[in-house]
Specification:
By secondary structure, the protein is of the alpha+beta class. The chain has two domains: 307 residues, Zn peptidases (Aminopeptidase, 3-Layer(aba) Sandwich), CATH 3.40.630.10; 133 residues, Alpha-Beta Plaits (2-Layer Sandwich), CATH 3.30.70.360. 37% of the residues lie in helices and 24% in strands. It has twelve helices and 22 strands. The strands form five sheets. Strands 8, 9, 10, 11, 12, 13, 14, 15, 17 and 20 form a ten-stranded mixed β-sheet that branches. The longest helix has 33 residues. The mean pLDDT is 96.
Length: 451
């Protein structure tokens, strides 16, 4: 019998509860910092299990602690609550376009299963330390303008949920963190070295309105300036180094209101992604120069607001190895993929966690379709939810049994990028920039002020 049999047997008994949660959250998708129905549903379930919650209050999300009663490290496990927007997905909310096209509904369901398993009698008899469960909002970096409005209103300080929770102190005292993301074939697990980080950009080109037919010469076309800016960014692409894994992908979110008026205002949202903060910062300077020079070419201006997105994810090597051990306890060995040199070019705020405590972000199979696409869904909820919960409980057991010897080894071997949370926040805050990128001097000189 497997050494993790007691966990697996309990999760099997909880399968109906787990899948009920997966379906509820799938049918009630909400984007980041709007997940109030999901929050209410999950909070009630956790309270019914006897958990005392620390709720964020003015934003969705909460933490719940459970202690073994014996001293030891604290393990932090996440379940993300937010959805994407995909208006042509057949199951999207018809009013908002929201849909869980990245599988966060499965994460939250698995975490609820873990929460219910941990309160079963005797389940933690051989463990020490404690576990913090975190239902966290706003991992998908979308609706940047909306999140910036929350920041300006003082509701949040950071646009990503885990970064905001870290800033608020909700994750203080945690020694190791992990979560399992949905993705891949049924009955498979995978993990790798890590993936990109990013900086976020709100860009507003500012011109001058005029009659598009009668007096276009009296206007300054912000849309043409924006088009020049996007083309200038495209012209930079061949200068990006392959090893830096740079990705730049702007979208126009507002481009004018009347076809017979010269657009005076155009809004763009953008990421600059890369493998290190250093290469992200360098490419971001070039992108800003391209945006500014394009505005100047048209006699327009461009206001650029840069915000820290997510730090690059560096999966902890020793924790990854233990996770692979847990994966092989759930599915056949040939269904476990570990590429210690593999790199993904997406982003996650688990990267920010990995910057300050040993962390990993593996994937669990059971999905079909294209991630973030209109055919994505949880095709095999047993794989995506039940297997995920089993694997995470097995990893908790590995870490916290035998006086938490493996957890302590992971902590001792960790090679973190920042010595403290304060040092980390100082580093990401260096990306914050706001202002017009072109200065038209009275002597006729044009300065690019953010280049």
């Amino acid at each position: 019998m497997s050494e993790y049999a007691k966990y697996f047997e309990i999760i099997d008994k909880l399968t109906d509860n787990i899948l009920e949660a997966e379906q509820y959250i799938w049918k009630n998708p909400e984007t980041g910092y709007r997940e109030w129905k999901t929050h209410k549903y999950l909070a009630e379930k956790y309270r019914d299990l006897g958990y005392k919650l620390k709720e964020a209050g003015n934003i969705p999300g909460f933490t719940a602690d459970i202690d073994t009663g014996r001293p030891g490290p604290r393990i932090l496990i996440f379940g993300e609550m937010d959805s994407l927007i995909c208006n042509d997905h057949p199951d999207c909310d018809p009013e908002t376009g929201a849909v869980h096209a990245c599988g966060h509904n499965a994460q939250s369901a698995a975490l609820l299963g873990i929460a219910e398993a941990l309160v079963q009698p005797g389940i933690m008899d051989n463990l020490c330390g404690s576990i913090r469960l975190c239902a966290v909002p706003a991992e998908e970096l979308i609706e940047i303008g909306y999140r910036e409005s929350l920041r300006k209103a003082g509701v949040i300080n950071y646009l990503g949920g885990k970064v905001e929770f870290l800033h608020r102190g909700y994750l203080d005292g945690c020694d190791i963190s992990f979560m399992i993301h949905s993705g891949g074939a049924a009955n498979h697990f995978s993990t790798n070295k890590g993936n990109n980080g990013c900086v976020l950009k709100n860009i507003e080109y500012k011109g001058k309105a005029a009659h598009a037919g009668g007096s276009p010469h009296d206007g300054i076309n912000a849309l043409y300036a924006a088009n020049l800016g996007l083309n200038a960014i495209n012209a930079l692409r061949e200068t990006f180094k392959d090893g830096d894994h740079i990705r730049v992908h702007p979208i126009i979110t507002y481009g004018g209101t009347a076809v017979n008026a010269i657009p005076s205002n155009v809004k763009i949202e953008n990421y600059v992604r890369g493998a290190t903060f250093e290469c992200i910062g360098e490419v971001n300077k070039r992108v800003n120069r391209a945006l500014a020079a394009s505005a100047a070419a048209m006699g327009a201006n461009v206001e650029i607001s840069d915000r820290p997105g997510y730090a690059p994810l560096i999966n902890d090597v020793e924790l990854n190895k233990l996770a692979v051990r847990a994966m092989k306890a759930v599915v056949p060995e040939e269904n476990v993929s570990y590429n210690p040199d593999g790199w993904g070019t997406g982003c996650t705020d688990m990267g920010d966690m990995s910057a300050v405590i040993p962390s990993i972000h593996p994937h669990c199979g059971g999905t079909s379709g294209t991630g973030h696409g209109n055919d994505y869904r949880i095709a095999d909820p047993i794989s995506a939810c039940v297997n995920s919960a089993k694997m995470q409980l097995a990893l908790v057991d590995i870490l916290l049994r035998d006086n938490a010897a493996e957890a302590k080894r992971v902590i001792d071997c960790a090679n973190l990028r920042y010595k403290s949370v304060d040092e980390y926040f100082k580093a990401i805050n260096a990306f914050v920039r706001d202002g017009d990128a072109v200065n038209y001097r009275t002597d006729g000189v044009i300065e690019l002020t953010m280049a």
